[in-house]
Structures
1.
Amino acid sequence: MSQQLIKGISICHPVKATKEYMIQAIKYATQNGIDHIQYGGPMHDHARGNIDGMTMYRKYNLFNSFKDEAYIKESIEILNEACRVAKESNIKFFAWHHELFLPTDFKDAYPEILNENGDIEVSHPIVQDFIENKVADFFHSYPLMDGIVLTLHETQVPLLKLKNQKLGKIERVKHVTKILFDSCRALGKELIVRPFASTDEDYEMMTKAYEEISPELVVMDKWTQFDWSLTMPSNPFFNKIKNNPLFVEADIFGEYFGKGRLPIMLRDHLAKKFEYSEKFSPLGYAARIDRANQIPFGDVNEVNLHIYSAHLNGKNPEDAINTFFESKYPGCGAEVRDLMEKTENVLIKSIYIKGYLFSELSIFPRLNHCINHYYFEMMKEGCNIQSNEWYIPKGWKRSSTDEMIKEKADGVEAANAAYEELLTLKDKIEASEYEKLLLKFTNLKYVAKMWQLLLFVHMSYARYFETNDEKYETELMDNIQKMLDLSKEATTALGDKFYCNNMSNGKYYDLVGLFTSDVIKGFNLEKIGCKNLASKHDTLDYVLCGGACEGHVLQKEVNFSDTIIKDDSLCRIPGNRNGMKWSAINAHGWFSFEMKVKPNCANKIEIVADNDDGQIEFMLTINGETHKVSKESRNKETIMVDFAENHGYDTVRVRIDKVSGYTPCVYSIRTIK
């Protein structure tokens, strides 16, 4: 590796800074030749996230009422001190930022920024002025900060998912990115951009936009394609970044494989990713080292930082690993290393299905998240997944039922064996260090078993609606009870430290209890909904949106087609739940199904939908034929549409697009005999 290589770490994902941890991270950086630190912060917190949440506006001070002033004061104190200490060791310091962000009431104060469809017009001069001023405000408050790391996704106003814009996608990316690039340069600061795309099309579009802005614009991209799954291939889009410096983003903590609460050693994974990335002569690396208040220092997973440091500094990773274990666990370093060697494989077998991310970012999932991500379809004998979702590996084919069951059983067996092996080391390891290991490996044992039961729950749920055989309902309830019993056992043993008791906003949540409650509710609602739709004498085919029997070769907008339970009914929205909460201006998603029709004749389709804002609006497309639906309503509405003769085909693809600030909730779609 080049001696000029930037050696970076990325911290506080996605939580606020504390002075103790900041100084600890800077100390680690100084000792390991790290010369670049990125601060993530609570980027998904509406009030505290991004540079907006860290700064009081000056020109646009009328929008400061939504801010957390105490948090901003604390951030200014901690981060400016961190920047000062970092500068003493020649370490650069950057802050993460997501755009496009506008205060919720911005559109009310400046209605002229809305276009005729009720969307933010991205190219409006007021939007540009607001961004320019927030950048100036940020560096006024944090003068020692070296720059900003920009992401154009996961925002209140989703730049790429808006329609009805004067600028196309690539021009939008260029417009907003250039505002930040020019604003930073004018202040002597740097901008690093993250494509963070979830489709091939978006990747190519964004990298082209960055290239056209400036050859000096640094592009930081993940070394796994799309996101952090262990099973994702190395990022092929490094090939697309030809005329801009490449900065490689890494995860050495375990964002999608335990989030630091489960034991994981990534020796082989890191070796493969460094070997791949070096082919592209990157400017440098920045690795995430923490997640959700779980930090690596003083923990067995700290071994990954030593492996990372060895790769960056041209040292032998094997020597670094042995030194770490011998120092931390004197007298039995080799035995603990042997335990950790097995962890990556145990987690892949437990929380994945043949490489498919069978969880919610490795946290125990919510039911609607599962429905939204094809989990029920995967369990059907007639599984038919046609998706462009990033987390389904390209060319992925489901295992057989027996293979899925065996994979989970193997994970349980391996986790139990590791746990039992650890118990034999109790008297060889210092007591406090042993207790930390015991917590991690006990959690691993329970996680492997819980994900095995998760498989059985989804399988019996899906098979019921596939076969209408009541034995699967009995199996479902039995597996739910086993899941609850296991959660009770694990909570008795581990309390709030049980992996499936997840902390959010300072409070622990029983995710297994929430999940099973939603499963029972969703199952009962789906039974009622399916019975009602199937019983209508003129039904040819139907989709109960958001359910296990939804199927019908579902396709949808990546990350922007959520399912919810609303008014005691399952439904799907062509957008996202957070967008519905924050603002009428949210992602313009879409979804579609393949449905039966009568060939060689005209057909009718029935859609049941509503919208809380009193207006139902969406675009209905049937085999390329479009129908604009727009009507006032505050209740569920039944919408009937006639569509053209379908020559010789007995199926059509029915697609629903969000086209305005009104997000439709779609409950069912039915074709009529």
Note: The first strand starts at residue 6 and ends at 11.
2.
Amino acid sequence: MKHWKLKRENILSCGIILLLMVYMGIFLYLNMAKYAQHVDSDIAAEALLAREIWTEKTLTPDNWIASTERYLFGMPVLASLFYGMTGSMQTAVGIACVLIGAAFSITFYWFARRLGLSRMASIVSLLALCALPINGLRNDGQMVPFVMLLLFVFADYYALHSILFFLCIIFYLNLKEKRTVSPLYGGYWFFLFGATTVLACGGQRCLQMVVLPLAAVEMISLFLDSKRFTVKPPRGRLWAAGFVSTLLMAYLISTFYKGQADYVVYLLTSQEALHRLFETVPAAILEGFGVAGKARVGTVESVMQILVWAFLALVGYGLILICRDKGKISRRLKSGLVLLLASLGITAFIVVMTSAEAAHNYFLVSWFVAVLVAGILVDYFQREKSAFGTIIVLAVCFFALLNLGYTYKDAVMTQDNLKEYEEVADLLIEEGIEYGYAEFWDAERISLIRDGAVTMGHCYQIEDPKMYWWLTSTKWYPPNLPEQMRTAYVVKTVKKDAFEARFAEVQDMELAFENGAFAVYISDTNYIVMQ
């Protein structure tokens, strides 16, 4: 019987590892061969920034207009090195994202193991993270679930913040439990302090996701350990508090960095806050898992969304089980889960109380909570000698197989999901035009689709020829470019009439090309105003 149990576990482990290798291979392929096929302009701008970093030989080019943050380290910084080696933006960012995605995968597995999950449960959690988010919204050419865009494909600062958070959680828990610091711990402590400072310089994400959750949990923990601050805690207990204090200090140091862009938010009314609490935030979290609705009952899309609902119901059951547990689940595992939930709660609180955007990617920690709970359940039921643990493993593997066909088959095989963009870029290259303009959500895509052979600046509205100060370079606009130069204007077909009306008095503006999505106008004059 014992021999059969061991054999069964080995077979399951091999199957999970095989599926993980398939998913990692897909992420590798998408990064290296399909990068430009799946980007939006926000993501494409990171590749253009990598080129600017290498060209200008500085981490923060003065000519680059950032969005809400001007970070000191991120994927574009790493990609700039590979751009210098290859001369290709697509190859450079592909390599950088593969490396960051690999580092994230290794760190997440290490995090799960250090919390106390078994090898089986840890790899199940990682497979669930890779396979369970589905693409519930197939819009604007997006074919890959957004969680994958953030962590594995086009991996950027979300992946880096997640890695830092995992490292900080484990170090914090070690300090609380061992209550001692060795020279090795000192080096690790200094590294985490430096990494927090660098990432915090980029904006509020590090404070919100990493620093505040650790500070809030430590404050409550210290309050309880000291019996409401009436008893002096053991000296060794203060090491954990000291570590959290240095993270707060790292954030304070980062506030002196002048590269952060102003991102104004306002407090909401009570009615608006309640609406966000009970509708907006839950909807954003569900959207991150791929629950989007609008799928006809009986179709594959509806089945996949129902299966995601089933997984989330399992996670809900797991959270209740963990709360009611009387000691069968380790305190370390519960502490790690509490820290993740604290991060999710702080993000939700900020979104509920302020006008900050309620984007589903802001709640990425919910994915970590969900897959960690799934891993905890696998271990829990296997210790209880219940077949339910094995059923959970098989269900995750089954869903992983289904999602290969539902989400990733098209993503891997697509050749023309951005065909209209390719046609525009090819025309500009044939015409020998180096610079053109379009609205933001089209401009960076056109630039990247042919690896920077043509550079597109952007306007907020193409019929209003003014520079849009968002993820762009001032080098791409007059007066840094001559006004008398052959210039392309790429206009969405729905705005063609408005554009022609705006330039009705211009004699040298000619319609050169039109497809189903765009009309391309070419002029001998650059009419864009940088203001």
Note: DSSP finds 18 helices and eight strands in the chain.
